[in-house]
Design a protein that fits this description.
This protein has 20 helices and no strands. It has helices spanning 10-52, 59-77, 86-92, 98-103, 107-122, 130-145, 153-172, 175-186, 193-214, 234-254, 263-271, 273-290, 300-307, 317-330, 338-347, 349-355, 361-377, 380-391, 397-414, 419-431. It has two domains: 10-214, Clc chloride channel; 231-418, Orthogonal Bundle (Clc chloride channel), CATH 1.10.3080.10. By secondary structure, the protein is mostly helical.
């Protein structure tokens, strides 16, 4: 998909516009699919709370049985759909065999990822929709964007990056963060200006699709927060360090090599993946009950309450949510870590509020969100931009950016390799596939 040379014939112009129209149409489809997928996850979460709210102890059965069933369906019918989906997309553009890489981003994977992630929300798993939206978006872009075009590594890389950008942009209505995520996290800045322009076009089209269908809705609403220069900035330093340490520990646990697990755990997981998932589900149920039900699903309401200064989370919430997300991911079911990580970060405002009572809770929640999220993904620009876009707040730009940079720096002391890169490498190793030179 090259830019047109100075002089081309009619046939070449037809080919160029064929490529462009496929690309633009695919971006619009990704936006619409992401919107429908998001609606399904919200509905599934509401169903879970409608059941578990009046009868909280039902989770002791629902969570283990649900995670075991989803893990079985994933392993049996949709291998490659487990986990976030972002590592699979990053692995696909690094695979030596292009034809094999495309099987990781197929219509089958997209359908399985959609159904099983929705099922995860329905049983209370502490997961998010954004990672799956990326893999679904990449699958859609790969399936539609390559119609009638000659397969190549360059085309695959472009489509995957575009799908990832459109996926993040559509999941949270954050078009700038979508493009930044593709450049900073997925491509590690190895893109030229041409690809950068195409990513902006993709996020704009997917964003316009959502704007036409539902209007300009901010994921966390418009957050009124400010942090003037002064002693309140000590909270930025404190949250940057704590968020980085906690985020780095989270990333270190999720990327810990399975082969180095204690023998009994490793053998149990290999002999009975569904039993292992059920144990994770039982742990999830216990953590959810201990949190009063707030550690289940993405914990969106808890984060919103902190961001708008309505109510501070409990002091135990950040650790309970942190652990609930770990056991949900380790169970082997599909699900993202973006939204739960943002909720953990917002929850850190409860700790900071006890030390800095003179700082507004909403400002602490935004800073904590950026610090912890950047600690998890180690992509400070993405972390800062996505928090600012999701809250529709530019007044906190400097504080949020500083927290993201500090969170990343501290996290690297705990987990030297970024979580998604480490997961992508593990995914390739598990398939016995070599990375392209």
């Amino acid at each position: 998909m090259h830019d047109p040379p100075a002089r081309v014939g009619i046939g070449a112009w037809k080919e160029i516009w064929h490529q462009r129209l496929l690309f633009w149409a695919s971006a619009a489809v990704v936006g619409a699919v992401a919107l429908g997928f998001g609606w399904c996850t919200v509905t599934a979460s509401r169903v879970f709370h409608a059941i578990a709210g009046p009868h909280p102890w039902v989770v002791v059965v629902l969570c283990p049985a649900g995670l075991a069933a989803i893990a079985y369906l994933t392993r049996t019918f949709f291998p490659g759909a487990q986990g976030s989906g972002i590592p699979q997309a990053m692995a696909a553009i690094r695979m030596e065999r292009v034809e094999f890489a495309r099987t990781m981003l197929s219509w089958r994977i997209a359908i399985g990822k959609t159904l099983l992630t929705v099922a995860g929300f329905a049983v209370g798993a502490s997961i998010g929709k954004e990672g799956p939206t990326v893999q679904i978006g990449c699958s859609v872009m790969n399936g539609l964007g390559a119609l009638g075009l000659k397969p190549s590594r360059e085309l695959l890389r472009l489509l995957v990056l575009a799908g990832g950008a459109a996926g993040i942009a559509s999941a949270f209505n954050t078009p700038i963060a979508g493009a930044v995520f593709a450049v900073e996290e997925m491509a590690h800045y190895q893109v030229d200006g041409r690809i950068g322009r195409r990513l902006l076009v993709v996020t704009a089209i997917s964003g316009m699709t959502m704007l036409a269908l539902v209007g300009n809705v901010f994921y966390f609403g418009t957050v009124r927060a400010a942090l003037p220069w002064g002693r309140g900035w000590l909270a930025v330093a404190a949250l940057g360090v704590v968020g980085g340490l906690l985020g780095g520990a989270f990333a270190r646990i999720l990327t810990f090599p399975l082969g180095r697990l204690p023998g009994p755990i490793r053998r149990f997981r290999a002999a009975s993946p569904e039993g292992y998932a059920a144990v994770c589900g039982l742990a999830l149920a216990g953590l959810g009950l201990a949190s009063g039900g707030r550690a289940f699903d993405a914990s969106h309401a808890t984060a919103v309450a902190a961001l708008h200064g309505v109510a501070a989370p409990s002091l135990a919430f950040p650790l309970l949510k942190w652990a609930a997300t770990i056991v949900s991911y380790l169970s082997g079911i599909p699900g993202g870590i973006f939204a739960p990580s943002l909720s953990v970060g917002a929850g850190l405002s409860a700790w900071a509020a006890a030390l800095f009572p003179h700082v507004a809770l909403s400002a602490l929640a935004m800073v904590g969100m950026a610090a912890y999220f950047s600690g998890v993904v180690q992509s400070p620009i993405t972390a800062a931009v996505i928090v600012l876009e999701m809250t529709n707040n530019m007044e906190m730009t400097v504080a949020v950016s500083a927290a993201a940079m500090l969170g990343t720096a501290v996290s690297r002391l705990v987990c030297p390799k970024p979580i998604y890169l480490a997961m992508a490498e593990q995914f390739l190793a598990g398939l016995g596939e070599r990375a392209a030179p």
